[in-house]
Write a structure and sequence with these properties.
Order of helices and strands: HHHHHEE
Helix content: 40-55%
Distance between the termini: 60 Å
Shape: elongated
Strand content: 5-15%
Number of strands: 2
Structural class: mainly alpha
Number of helices: 5
Amino acid sequence: MNACLSLPRRLALAAAGALVAAAPVWAADPPPSSQERYRAERAACESGWSHQDRATCLKEAGAAREEARRGQLDGANTQYQRNAMARCDALPQADRADCQARVRGEGTARGSVEAGGIYKETVTRELPAAAPVAPAPVQPAASSLQP
């Protein structure tokens, strides 16, 4: 692990960490399937919770399900994920993998918004390269014949 980072590199890492920490937590629960979402929206239409008239609500729920089937209905979490990963692209190549790991929720997080910020950290251990092992010199076998 490189313990001595230059000031610009530390500032870039801190800025990337702050941007990632400011994003909402999007990986808490897996997104519902389009059929599950449709059932929930339809139930909201039937119960009157949608604040739309029933016919319009059912039409919108059906249209959303069709868009999801075609792959055209993109969840907000997916867009957040892409934006967060795009922020990592601005970092030097050596720091990009750690940034992407933090975006995916790997590592540890400390602090709170109330305390002034959330500090996210990933630790990458790098082992020193092993020195090449030179083969031992071959010694000629001692002869049993003596002069």
